[in-house]
Structure formats: structure tokens, C-alpha cells
Design brief:
The protein is of the alpha+beta class. The protein is built from 7 helices and 22 strands. The strands form 3 sheets. Strands 1, 2, 3, 4, 5, 6, 7 and 8 form an 8-stranded antiparallel beta sheet that branches. InterPro entries: Calcineurin-like_PHP, FA58C, Galactose-bd-like_sf, Metallo-depent_PP-like, PAPs-like.
Length: 446
């Protein structure tokens, strides 16, 4: 509450100050605040600065992370007028939660649940509130267990949406600190149309801005980096003005459009990226980060025996627990291009090596698949595939939904935000406006 008044005489000021102090004391007695609850609970704060996602955002300035940054001047806000809505935090490892504090903005929840999950998919309720009136809500004496905690609003208290200044989660992380090898990667395919930021309909400046704002460990691209024929001049005039800002941190692969260059297949691509795209002298290569082994492949030449031999030998040498591979033409897709069998022999090899994740582009939409084998049969030890072709090229419609396809989005441009640890992975599809369009379950590496 903000009080304004003209300057009173000194005696009046003293009386006024006394009255205010008495009022504050009365409020603290009537409704214990954070200081009281903190004194009663010794468990540490374990949510500050952790990765957060939400069902929607009111705008780019209301990110889910605002509710976990310790700054009471920033907040998360959902889209207005829609139920239900949620905000979730990844605590970094399995944890036992004893207390949760919620600081609501005016747009509060009337009815909501606090839930926990081990994998971000199956949720268990640990607390509920009905007829909430906003302000600060404290939940103590909890015994929630899981890695992920979310606040699920089921009924709004106002005509607006849901908005939280802060969500503080207290408890203990099981087994000590979270895995030390955690890092973030941003990925996209089908990126730079022949347009610039001077055109409001040009998408790749917006996806580049969103990708850069996430500030990952590095970026990877799934081909068709530059349209239409991937000439060197086009790379310089378009891609370089946007995604080129973080070229040195990019790990690209070529798509079919890179092969259309009138100067020769991949000439512009190779001249623009140089050793970044050819670190091992070929358009396919591998590298390690944390406990992950990444394999970048050229799906234009999957019929080249030398690439297949190299892949087998590379996997045989790998000592990392988690394996991700990426190329342009996806084996499975519900988009206009559909399934592309060119990737089947590569899937066979990766599946035999217990690889975890495959990313592709080519079709201009976002899609995630449940774990499956190279023949498209769902299996717990299968490979998870993502189609991420929404980096800036014109969207393609969804045409024939494939088995094991769990989520499809065509229209909103965006990037993949991959959150990887020593043993697990999960991702979000983040729109150019900062809103999270989809969030995956958390998977454990094979």
C-alpha cells in the first residue's frame, strides 16, 4: 500500500509514525509473514534461479523465470481470461519440499493446486487452496517429493490471468547438489528466408533474438540455414545479420537448400561457416559437452558409405552416457514432406548404440515423438525425436499425423530450448514472444 500526504508538523508526524507502526504490528500478528515462517523452518530455499516454464505468458516481459529470480519488482503473468494455467520450476534434482510461499499480484488464483513430479509428466498434489484472495500464501509442513514443482491455477480470482511476483520453494535436495554437468542448448532448423528486420513479417530476426536471449552453452542448427539457394552472398545478406551474431557458438549441419548453390553443392555453406561446419574436414562431425556426445550428420549424403562407416566408428569410441544426433531430413514427420526413409539406416545404428535423442528439420513445424524404434514401434528404450523446422521459413501445415507423435505446432515461429544434465534431458518449444508453446517430459539417458 502506498500512502501520500503533505508534510505534517513534528508532533503530528510522530503520532502518525506511531500509528503506522502499530498497524504494521497488528498485521504481522494477524497474518504471519515470511520472516515468521522462515524462523520456524530451517530448510533452505532451493528454487531461486532454477529453470522455469509456464503454460502461457501475457507478453515477453512476464517470463516464468521472473517468479524465481528473487526480485519482487518482476513477475510472471499468464495469458488473460483462460483457465487452467500453470507455472513450473525444475529444482535440478529430486528434492523433498517442506514449504512453499506464493506472492500473488492482483491477478491471483481463486482455486489452485501445488503439485510435484519426478519426471515433469506425472503430477501429485501436495497442497490445495480454494477461495484464495491473493496476497501472500504460505504452505508449511509439506512432505512433497519430486524434481519438478508447479502451481496449477484452475479458477481465476479476477477477470485477468494469473500473476506471481515470487514463488519460493524450501526443502532439501536429495543426494546433495544437483548434477554438475547441466547446460542449455538452443536448436532450430529452416532459418533464414531472404528478408530482413525491415519487414515485420520476417521471422528469422525474431527467432535469432529469442535464441540469443536464452544465452545457451551453444547453438545447433538442423539444416536449410539459408534460403533459397544458400549462396555465400545470401548468407552474408540475411543469415549473418541475425543468427550470424552467434556464429562462433553454432554447430550447424547442411540441408537440401545448401546443396542448390549455383556455385556448387555446399560451396556457400562451407565458405560461410568454414571450420565451424567442417571441424573434422567433413560435413559430418562429433563433439562432447558435459556427459553428452553430439553427432552432426549430413542427411544429403546418407548413401555415402564413408559417412556410415565414420558413424559406426565414432559411436564405438564414445564414452559419454548420453547421445544426441541431428541432421536435416527426419525419419518421422507429420508435415508436408512426411516420413523420410533416408534416415532409417542411421536410426538402426543409433538405436543399436542406445542413443537417446535425434533432432531434424525439413518440415517447417514443431513436433515431438514418444520414444520409438527405427520401425516406428513405441518402446521405452527407443529414441526420442524432435522436428524443429520453425526457425524462420514459411510454416508448413500438419498433414498426416504419424504414430507416436505427441505434440504438433505449425504457425508460431520459435526455437528449441534443450536443458541437459549428466543423466537427463528435457526441452521447451519457446515462441518468439517468449511464451512456452510446449514442454517435454524429462527423460533419463539410456
Amino acid at each position: 500500500m502506498r500512502l501520500t500526504a503533505s508534510t505534517p508538523p513534528r508532533r503530528t508526524a510522530v503520532l502518525a509514525l506511531t500509528a503506522v507502526l502499530l498497524l504494521i504490528a497488528a498485521v504481522l500478528v494477524a497474518r504471519p509473514g515470511r520472516a515468521d515462517a522462515a524462523g520456524a523452518a530451517a530448510d533452505p530455499l532451493i528454487s531461486r534461479g532454477r529453470t522455469a516454464t509456464a503454460s502461457s505468458l501475457e507478453g515477453s516481459g512476464f517470463a516464468a523465470s521472473n517468479a524465481f529470480d528473487g526480485n519482487t519488482g518482476t513477475r510472471w503473468a499468464s495469458a488473460e481470461g483462460q483457465d487452467p494455467q500453470w507455472i513450473s520450476v525444475d529444482l535440478g534434482a529430486l528434492a523433498t519440499v517442506s514449504r512453499v510461499t506464493l506472492d500473488w499480484e492482483v491477478a491471483h488464483a481463486r482455486d489452485y493446486r501445488i503439485e510435484m513430479s519426478a519426471d515433469g509428466a506425472a503430477w501429485t498434489t501436495i497442497a490445495t487452496r480454494t477461495a484464495g484472495d491473493g496476497g501472500t500464501d504460505e504452505f508449511t509442513g509439506l512432505a512433497g517429493k519430486g524434481r519438478h514443482l508447479r502451481v496449477l491455477g484452475t479458477a481465476r480470482g479476477t477477470e485477468y490471468g494469473y500473476s506471481l511476483w515470487e514463488v519460493d520453494v524450501y526443502g532439501t535436495v536429495d543426494g546433495g547438489e544437483p548434477p554438475t554437468g547441466a547446460f542449455t542448448v538452443v536448436a532450430a532448423g529452416d532459418i533464414a528466408a531472404q528478408c530482413t528486420a525491415s519487414s515485420s513479417s520476417c521471422a528469422h530476426p525474431k527467432t535469432a533474438a529469442r535464441a540469443q536471449r536464452i544465452n545457451p552453452r551453444f547453438y545447433l542448427t538442423m539444416g536449410d540455414n539459408q534460403y533459397d539457394d544458400a549462396r555465400l552472398s545470401d548468407f552474408r545478406n540475411y543469415y549473418d545479420k541475425t543468427w550470424g551474431a552467434f556464429k562462433s557458438k553454432t554447430r550447424p549441419v547442411p540441408g537440401n537448400h545448401e546443396s542448390y548453390d549455383p556455385a556448387g553443392e555446399f560451396v556457400g555453406y562451407k565458405q560461410y561457416f568454414g571450420a565451424i561446419a567442417y571441424p573434422q574436414g567433413k560435413p559430418y562431425y562429433s563433439y562432447d559437452e558435459g556427459n553428452w556426445h553430439f553427432i552432426a550428420l549430413d542427411s544429403n549424403t546418407f548413401d555415402d558409405p564413408s559417412q556410415i562407416t565414420w558413424l559406426r566408428e565414432d559411436l564405438a569410441r564414445n564414452s559419454k552416457k548420453c547421445v544426441a544426433a541431428y541432421w536435416h531430413h527426419p525419419l518421422f514427420s507429420s508435415g508436408g514432406h512426411g516420413n523420410d526413409p533416408v534416415g532409417k539406416p542411421v536410426w538402426d545404428i543409433l538405436y543399436g548404440a542406445k542413443a537417446d535423442l535425434v533432432l531434424g528439420g525439413h518440415d517447417h513445424h514443431y513436433e515431438r515423438f514418444a520414444p520409438q524404434d527405427p520401425s516406428g514401434r513405441a518402446t521405452a528404450d527407443g529414441i526420442v525425436q524432435i522436428v524443429g523446422g520453425m526457425g524462420g521459413a514459411e510454416p508448413y501445415p500438419i498433414e498426416e499425423v504419424q504414430p507416436n507423435s505427441q505434440k504438433r505446432i505449425s504457425g508460431p515461429y520459435g526455437v528449441l530450448k534443450l536443458d541437459l544434465t549428466d543423466t537427463t534431458y528435457r526441452w521447451s518449444y519457446v515462441g518468439t514472444d517468449g511464451s512456452v508453446k510446449d514442454t517435454s517430459p524429462t527423460y533419463t539417458c539410456h
